[in-house]
Design a protein that fits this description.
Elements: H1 8-13, H2 15-24, H3 29-38, H4 40-61, E1 64-68, E2 72-78, E3 82-90, H5 100-109, E4 115-123, H6 128-137, E5 141-143, H7 146-156
Antiparallel strand pairs: 1-2, 1-5, 2-3, 3-4
Helix pairs in contact: 3-4, 4-6
Amino acid sequence: MKYKRLTKEQLEALHQEFANFLASQSIDKKEWDELKANKPEVAEQELDVFSDLIWEGVLMNAKFLEHFSKNHIFLFHCQEQFIQSIVLKSVVTEVDFMTKEGLQWLSDNMFTETVEMHIGKKDYDQERNAAIFDLISQGAILSDGQLYIQINSILQS
């Protein structure tokens, strides 16, 4: 398995896609039930292959990621050959970016000495999708990129 198996909730949400996946392999509901009952290892392999296919599609289309922690916000723009980042850090340790108040504080103090900002660019040290998957595994989430684009445009002007 290249990535990780989708959770039960994710698989349930993708029920129709999974049914189509099985159908593309000429496996109908009856055969799937027989596989689960009599050859669970084969059923597990099918779940793994399907999970990898879904992850591959998601990662291929990933453009922006965000990772929020108490005192840091990591914003990523995933390009084809490299990844760009903007890292915001509060030097005021009481601020918590995981709260609405912390984000308001950031908005009010963005360009003061209480917020450190670092901009970076790094070539992928592994295959692009694997690198993005690693960031997601560490807690980053897919995003529409609005925060990255907004901050980046301010920094460019």
